[in-house]
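Quick one:
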Amino acid sequence: MKDYRITTHPILPIPERETIDFTWKGEALQAQAGETIATALFANGIRIFGYHPKDGSPQGIFCANGQCAQCTVVADGLPVKSCMALVKPGMSVEPVLALPKLPEAEPISGFKAVENLKVDCLIIGGGPAGLSAAIELGQRGIQTLVVDDKHRLGGKLVLQTHRFFGSINACYAGTRGIDIATKLSADLEQIPSVDIWTNTTAVAVYSDKKVGAVRDGKDYVLIEPKVILVATGAREKSLTFKGNTLPGVYGAGAFQTLVNRDLVRCSERLFIVGGGNVGLIAGYHALQAGIEVAGLVEALPECGGYKVHKDKLVRMGVPVYTSHTILSANGTDQLESVTIAAIDKEWKPIPGTERTFASDTLLIAVGLDPVDEFYKKAQEFGLPAYAAGDADEVAEASAAMFSGKIRGLEIARSLGYDVPEIPPDWFRTSDILKSRPGVIIHETVPDDGEAVYPVLHCSQEIPCNPCTSVCSQGAIVIDDVDIRKVPDYIAKKIGVECIACEKCITICPGLAITLVDLRKEQPETALVTIPYEFDRGSIEVGDFVTVLDTTGTALGQVEVVRARIGKTTDRTVLVKVRAPREIANKIAGIEIQNKEVGASLEQYVERLTDDLIVCRCERVSLAEIKAIIQSGVHDMNEIKAVTRAGMGACGGKTCSSLIKRAFRELGVPMSDVTENVARPIFVEVPLGVLAGVKE
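Output:
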């Protein structure tokens, strides 16, 4: 069987891991130590994990984060979420073919007392917000416990190979997410007043102001904090379209987990729905992993993510279709193609614009919902609670770090510690980091006459300033008060010259700076330095490459005269090409992917099955939900009772937002809708763990 693990990557190190044996449907397979079952199955080319007992529909991965239950398998006789359960030597894994039958068990004889622990502050979530808050609290000697359900700290930072935007002083802008995670974790581990529990899942907040948590899947602990900080991040939104639950259709975050955390090449060719930062970045990560990207579709007239992220994709050969929507995911047991169409001003598909693209993976990146149930329940029971990061407001990780820092100081003050007032400019910085992309300004190029100069292909107002910090000449500037302004190159104005150090090219998070060098060149040519974050061996001196502008328009083929990488370039290859002078200023990148990858099939595929699924756990369709709403039911609890939507293992985490959308589509105002009553336990827990069974 083919091994789909990634063996080389331009940014990520490839660790050596112990190989362990397990079986799938009785067939011997190999996993790597520390892999989840889902990762090991994907690494062996297996994407169908079972068939739903209600209608026999094939099941695969969706969130890869323990939020849903679509990836359930039977491991050593017990149903488990394959994205969370680790492979064990000799483990027998089987697909779910019907309702799992529990194995016979001997009577239980031994029980252990539930551990009770008191702390000053409990932080749920070890991502950028939680870590930043914990550092602030720990530095002041405040007894703090951080719990996270993953095996390492960092949250989504551990999936981010790109450099971060934002303020270089406030949130490590210009540093890769994976490196920020390492730094924050290392800083926190040096603070004695902070305890860290990884592989620990917070499962409930109770009326006696205690929080239940499960450590290592087997030990139930009750934690009694004086104050709680919820930094649990966000979960991905879903979308209804024909074939939306086929194996191969899953969240962009799940894809990043498989590729960047688990180093599995989980696709040959993919398509993306959603032009926000998550979708755009996932496309770039796919290209880095050697995966073809057939295209990206966005319903709005413009992508909602940073323009520099979109520019990276299009100038590497990925088509982006705005004012388009997904019609269907096509295939029998797993995804084989996707069909899209243009939409009109009423958001309706335009007949005759349908196109189908061959792909084995469809990434859903249509927004995020805060994971805030712990925060709301704590407030309901009177437990002093704060929220930070995406659990408070969905934004970039740079904003999450800074909001965590602020919340840490606020909590310290609430606990009676002598902490100075938080400076007002901190809140202004926080608002700037959370701001959405601003206006697009026409790209400017330095005046003729300079021998060497940077071209700033950054033309949208976003919070970002790393380029200003590394220019030794002080020739790149951004508004001191508002870092959302577009950077400006002012060498002539201040009487200095660019020294061609190339540092601005290396640090730019958007790979949006090139350097034009006219020195020692013929009148008709120029040397252009371009940032390149793909395998060093894929480009050599003497190669001819196709260069593109920021819109993805090919400018021609040019010769590579130098390609270097060093400690100061932080894994970015600086490629120098010789190009005609008339196109030098327009060059923004090198084509990575052949245009043929994004070509549609000659005939579009129409999926005839009406399988727009709202509730994945219970296989409830959009038609069923709308029918009961139209009958006059406006209570989501009643919808649950009649259809079972929201009654599955995920507890309504995936379908609730889709049911609300159905109400809106039918013209029912949300003020007339009664929402679901949240379950008292937010994550499933084996009864034996709650009971304190010793073995």
